[in-house]
Structure formats: structure tokens, C-alpha cells
Amino acid sequence: MMLNRLFGSLRTYATRANLSKLRNIGIIAHIDAGKTTTTERMLYYSGKINRIGDVDQGDTITDFLPQERARGITIQSAAISFNWQDNYKINLIDTPGHADFSFEVIRAVKVLDGCVTILDAVAGVEAQTEKVWKQSKNIPKICFINKMDREGAGYSRTVKELITKMRTKVALINMPLFKYDTKTQTNSFEGVIDLVNQKVLKWSAQDPDHVEVIEAIEAASEIKEQFLQGRESLVEALGEFDESLVEYFLDQAEGDYLKIPANLLNQSIRQATLHQHLTPVLCGASFKNIGVQPLLDAVVDYLPSPLDARIPEVNHDHLPMSQDPKVGVLINGNKNLCVAFAFKVITDPIRGTMIFIRVYSGTLNSNSTVYNCSRASKFKLGKLVLLHANVYEETPQLYPGEIGVLSGANVANNVSTGDTIVSHSVKKDGLKSLNKNTELTLRINPIAVPPPVFVVCVEPKTLGNKKAMEEALSLIVREDPSLVVSKDEETGQTLLGGMGELHLEIARDRLLNDLHAGVNIGKVMVSYKEAINESSQESTAENDSGCRFTLSVEPIPLDVPIEETIASDKSGSKWYPLGSDNNYLVVEPHETYKLDNWKLQVPYDSIINAILSSSIAALQKGGKVANFALHSCAVKLKGNWQVPLDMENVTEVLPLTRNLIMGMLDSLPSNDYSVLEPVMNLEVNIPQKDVGPVMQDLTGARKANILSIEDEHEMSETDDSLSSADFHKMAQQQYLPPDMTLKSARLGEIGISNKIIRALVPLREMVAYTNKIRSLTQGRGTFHIDYHGMDRVTQDRLESVINE
């Protein structure tokens, strides 16, 4: 029975899924922790593939792009579905680990219910792992400590780092099993000690399908002792959250940790994981095919189904929403309402535009008429597709909780990343039966797109290439909204902005090699913006047909999180984001036309969308210092605007409001504009002896603002009830098996810890910093940067920035 459970079984997935047996999960980690290798083994053991691909050989299933196979890294998130034991279905998204592709993680996390975090047993908890952990902070996780077969692997050291750096309690599900080789006098990793099922599992080096299972209580004395202490620690950790487990332990188990059945422990671990009280931890070596089946068991045992997952946030604050076992998220009490969210766009060479969606509520039918709430427009769907990396399987329906793909000519111009789609679950064209004021205006909160920090100039090789260049740029931006195309109004140059140098390098490859665009691409530059220092005068524009709008433009504070700025607005206004430059359209409640009694022929959303477009165009025109696009501006629309009752479209609204905004900006004097530059959060991890030279370089050449210097194990305080010291103490008290690497671990209590310098630094000054930090620390120092925000360029640096 244990073997059947471990290896699962491949069965035909039912036409309509049992929501409780569906798992939408993502694989997240630092680059090179083994995400794709682990995914490949999951597919093999589930029976999805009959041979195991290799990242180094460039033949993995989920890394199918030529750039991914050439570099051996994941660039875009890839989704695939497979079955596991007892007819569970797992929709898995393998995400990139490189910081330049963090938007891929952001949009994957948006639609996931649970995550598997993979840690490198040699490197421990790395910088990008911390970042993606924070990005997925509201999602239950399990951890898999990979590469236990490598020299220098440290299970116990990595668990300690997990507790202190991620500020999480842990539940050890299994622990590493080593075999001592008397000839080489070394330990080799050969399996795991399963604390829940009380087994010792040994994998064969010759046969990836063979596993030897023995009772842990009958194992060698050293292994048995580790098992007994590990199980006791597991039960006590769960007892902090589960009173029923404590009662069972005292009454029915008579105080014997071994008498608690596995199913009861699994129930307890599941509930603690769903409520994020703790993180289950497993270990293995994916490349050696060790420990992957228990990881798959943990996915179905501990991670949430769509019924357990958080309900998505929507634009209607008081709309009733609940979980229903048949329709998924029941919205507005309407069991016939289907709601889906578009989170990714790709272009397939054969099928054309493909839109990845997550169905949250109801059933989506192929060839049915749907309504895009984000664009206030309806269109007819083509075929629906289930995803298997770059292989697609057509399906007549997508059911609640499913992740699938929209295909067909109609979707290309009707759906973008972040759009919300609604339809009738039964009728092919049942939109008329949906509530026009709630269900047809429902929008799942969009994906936050990080702003570009680097730009390159893109020019057509000849005038004849210009149209092809614009089409190619439009295509790659549609696929990846974290790429931004803009135009320098002064020079007429087209600029492409991205998250980092590698991000733009991949975009360059895509333009030249995949799309064969005839373009020249310049060197990488920092992306600068401008901001207004003062508000414009409120101004009104009207035309002969009866359109009348009153607007103003105001600066948004740079030093206050935008969430706080929006929360402090008590006017009842709606804030609509204008792209990725922290610009917003702020719409006051309308004084005349109430949304619940709308009398105009043209929809309210169409008018607002027109003003959104005109605001973006006006702000992109740039400021008066160096014509950089404007940043952190609030275009405020007064609630007394009016349009004719019989107006049929919004063609008059666009130029009227655009010219009004541009006129207000032109009226501001030049000294009311400032140049902004991207500022990065910098974290440098260095030996203590190198602190002096690194600090001198940061404060001098890099113009950095030092925030703190801490020991490596220290974490900044948060609003949690537990402090950093509490988690450090927890790591000390947690039972862990013997680990030779703990002797050299830098965890504060052993030896001299590394120092971590945290600072804010202008991105411009971080060019070529990799070589500098290696030189200053003899190759021992590492650093990590991510976007903090925009800040005003100081007067002494302004001229050099403009010249650049």
C-alpha cells in the first residue's frame, strides 16, 4: 500500500473536476535551485512523460524556448497539467528564478493557490528566494530542500536559515538518509526518513523507478534514533495549533508518539499549512531522482484546493462572494456566472495569440459569447485549450478552478493580460441575463506591473522596416507587459524599457531571431522620468456637441506607498492606474448619472476608458526639463462632467480631454518639474573584514544611502507578534539531524557571521558593480538589488543625467 501511495497512479481525469482534488501550484526559487529539474521528475513519476529531460542537454518539457535551452535558465513561466494518486489533478507553473523576470513570478502567483519553494541545500536560502517568498506571502507553501547529494549540502543548516530568514515555523515531513562508504570514507545521500508514515525510503542509483521501503522503527540504531526524535518534534510542533491532536495523543495514543496514525498527522499538517501557521519541509535530490514522489504526495496532502484558497479581490467591495463545491467562487449568488482572469499572453507560431486564463467561477464554454469587463466589450470565443508546456489539447469546456488557454482569431484583439472575462455558464450567449451594473462591470484586481528601470533605443534599419518594427514591438509588449515602449518626443527615437539587462537582452533576441525584425538596438541606458512639483489649476473644456469635463493634475507623493495615498482619499473617488509609471486617473463619484440608474446610450466604462487613454497619451508627452515621460501624477476628474444623452461613441472625448490635460501641464513653469531616477534596494552580503572598503565604495562612488549594517542572521522587525530574536531562538530549539556543515555555518551563534549592508542606491551607479564587489571581497561577496522607487535627481548630478 505504501508503494502505491508513493508512486501514485496515472488515471484518466474526469470531465468535470472534483474541486477538492485539484491543485494549482507554482514552483518558486532562486535561479539554479533546481525548479525545472524537479518539475521534469514530477512529470516523469506522474506518467506524463516516459523519459526524463535534462536542463544541461536542453531537452526539458517546460523550458522549451530556444533562449531558455541555450542558457539553461527559465525565462518565461510554463504551465503543465498532470495527474497524481487517487485521481488528483495538478496544474503546475514553473517560474523563472532570475530577478529580471520577476514579473513572470508576480503574474503566476496571482492565479496560484499554493507554492513549492525549492531551496539549494548547498547555498541555503538565497536572495531571490527571499524575494519570491515575499511576493507570495499570502499563499500556503511547502519547502523542498534539493541537491542533498552535493558536496557541502546542509539540511539542518538550510532549515535553520528557512526559519530565521523567512520567519516561519516548520514541520519536518522527512529527513535525509545517508550511507557511509568505508572505502571513500564519505557519506552518500540515498533516501529519506519519512516521519509521518514511519518509513525509511531508499532509492536505487541504477533504477529511478525502484525504491526500497523499510519500517523506520526497524532501521539501524542511528537512523531509528533520528526518526524517534524527529517524530516527537513534529507532533509537538503541530500540537501548538491543533488541540484535537493533543487530546488524541494523551487519550488514545496514551502518550506514545508512534501511535498517532499518519492520516491524523496529515490532516493536522494540512490545516496548519492552509492557515500558514507553519511550512512543511521535505528533502531530496531531483537530479538523482530522490524524494520527488513524497514531494508530490505533500502537494496533494497539504496545499490548498481552489475551495481552500483565498477568494480573489475584485473592484466591487460589497459584492457577496463565497466558495461553492460545484461552481468554485460563487459571486453575487449567481450559479450561472462564469468569471475568468487572463494572466498571460503568448504567440504560438501555429495557433497565433494564446491567452492563459484561470477560471474562478462557473464553466467557460468554447464558441460562446463572453464579455470583457476590463474593456467593456463582448466577443465570441474560439476553441479552448488545456496546456502541456508547448503542446495544447483542445477541450469543449473549462471548469471552475481550471487553468487553460483561449485561442482563435477573436482573442488577439479582445483580451490582454489582467483582463476579467465573464459569461453565462449554460447559454452560449446569455450575457443579457447577467446583471449589467455588477456582474458585467466586475473586475478582478489587475496584476501590478513593475516599472522598467533600463531602456534601449530601437530603430528600423530602413524606413521600410518601420511598420514591421512597430508590429514586432507591439507583439513582445503584449506578451510581456513589464516591457514598455515609449517615444522620445525630442529625438523621435523609440525606446524599449525593461526590468534589467538580461531582460532586455532576451527581448533583443526575440526581436532579431524569432520575429526577424529589421532593427538596430542601442546600448542599455537607465530609464529616467519627470514629475511635477505643484498641482495645476483646475480647468474645464467643452465642445459644441455638449461634452464638458473639468480636470486637474496633481503630484503623487514619492515617499508614501501608493496604497496609503489611495487609502487616505476619503472623497469616494475611484483610482485607475495609468500604466507602470505610478500615474493614476482619479474619478470622483458622478453627480448626475448614477451607475445603478445609468441613462446614457454609451456605457460609463467606455467614457472612463477614453479618459484613461487620453491621460496616458498626455503624460507620455513628457516634462519640461528633458522631455522624460511623467511619473507619479494624478489626473483628477470632477464628478460634474457631462456628455449628450444620445452620444453613441467616445470619439469626441479622447481629443477633448487629452488637449485639456496637455494644456494644464504646459501652463506649469519649468521649475515646477523635476527629473526622477530609479532607486534600488541593495543588499550586500560580505565577510566582516571587507565592510570598510565596501562601505567606502558605496557611500563614495555609488552615492548610496546606507540603511543598516546587520549580522547575517538578523532580520528587520515587522508587525508580527514574534520578533527576529524569537525566530532565531526557534531555530536553535528545533530538532534537526546531525549536519557537518553547521560547523562552518554563518548563523550568528557559530563563528563570525557575515555582515549584510542594506542601502538605497541610484540604479545608474550600479552599472558594473558585479566586478567591483568581487574585487573588493576576493570573490566572497554577493549582492542583490530590486526596484525601490523613483527619487528626484540631486542638482549636482542633474547635468550628467541629462547629458546621458
UniProtKB/TrEMBL annotation:
Q: Which GO terms describe its biological process?
A: mitochondrial translation; ribosome disassembly
Reading the lineage from the top rank, the first entry is Eukaryota
Pfam families documented for this protein:
EF-G_D2 (PF22042), EFG_C (PF00679), EFG_III (PF14492), GTP_EFTU (PF00009)
List GO terms (cellular component aspect). Answer: mitochondrion
Domain (Tr-type G): give its ranges: 20-307
* MF terms in GO: GTP binding; GTPase activity
Give the location in the cell.
Answer: Mitochondrion
- Keywords assigned: GTP-binding, Mitochondrion, Nucleotide-binding, Protein biosynthesis
Q: Which InterPro entries match?
A: EF-G-like_DII, EFG2, EFG_II, EFG_III, EFG_III/V, EFG_V, EFG_V-like, G_TR_CS
- SMART domains per the record? EFG_C (SM00838)
Binding positions for GTP per the UniProt entry: 29-36, 94-98, 146-149
Q: Which PANTHER family match?
A: RIBOSOME-RELEASING FACTOR 2, MITOCHONDRIAL, TRANSLATION ELONGATION FACTOR G-RELATED
Tell me, in a sentence or two, what this protein's role is: Mitochondrial GTPase that mediates the disassembly of ribosomes from messenger RNA at the termination of mitochondrial protein biosynthesis. Not involved in the GTP-dependent ribosomal translocation step during translation elongation.
HAMAP family cross-referenced by the UniProt entry: mEF_G_2
**UniProt cross-references to NCBIfam families, sorted A to Z:** small_GTP (TIGR00231)
Name the family the entry cites: Belongs to the TRAFAC class translation factor GTPase superfamily. Classic translation factor GTPase family. EF-G/EF-2 subfamily.
The name on file for this protein is: Ribosome-releasing factor 2, mitochondrial
Species of the source = Zygosaccharomyces rouxii (strain ATCC 2623 / CBS 732 / NBRC 1130 / NCYC 568 / NRRL Y-229)
Organism phylogeny: Eukaryota, Fungi, Dikarya, Ascomycota, Saccharomycotina
